[in-house]
Amino acid sequence: xxxxxxxxxxxxxxxxxxxxxxxxxxxxxxxxxxxxxxxxxxxxxxxxxxxxxxxxxxxxxxxxxxxxxxxxxxxxxxxxxxxxxxxxxxxxxxxxxxxxxxxxxxxxxxxxxxxxxxxxxxxxxxxxxxxxxxxxxxxxxxxxxxxxxxxxxxxxxxxxxxxxxxxxxxxxxxxx
Length: 176
Fold this sequence. Notes:
The chain is an all-alpha fold. The chain has one domain. It has six helices and no strands. The chain is rod-shaped.
C-alpha cells in the first residue's frame, strides 16, 4: 500500500489523553482490588499466628512461675527446719496447702518427693514434741536415746534435701 516510509500517515496525538489516563488508572485500581482480599487474608493469618505464639509463650511463663512457687515453698520449709531444728505442724499444714497444685504441674516423681518430705517433716515434728529435757517430766516408757537419735536422723534427712530438691526441679525450671 505505502511504498515508502514517508508515505505513512502521520501519528496523531491522542485526542483525549484524559480518557486514556483514566482507563489505565481504572485498570490499576481494579487489579489492586483483586489483590486486596488475598493480601488482607495473608495479613490476618500472620497476625493470628503471632497471637498464638504470644499466648503459648504466656502459658509457658505462667507455668514456670507456678512451678517456681512450689520449689520456693520446698526451700522455705527446708529453711525453717534448718533454722529451728524442728518443723511445727502449722508450718507443715501451710506447706501442704502451698504446694497443693504440684500434682498438676509436675510429673509423679515431684509429688512423691513432696509426700516424702512431708512425712519426714511430720516425723521430725513428732520427735521434737516427744523430746524432754532432764528437768521435764518423763514417762516410764520414755527412751531419751531413741528420741534424740530419731530426731537427729530426721533433721539430717530434711536439712540434706537442698541439693536433691534442686536436681529434681532443675528439668522443670530450666528456661533454656
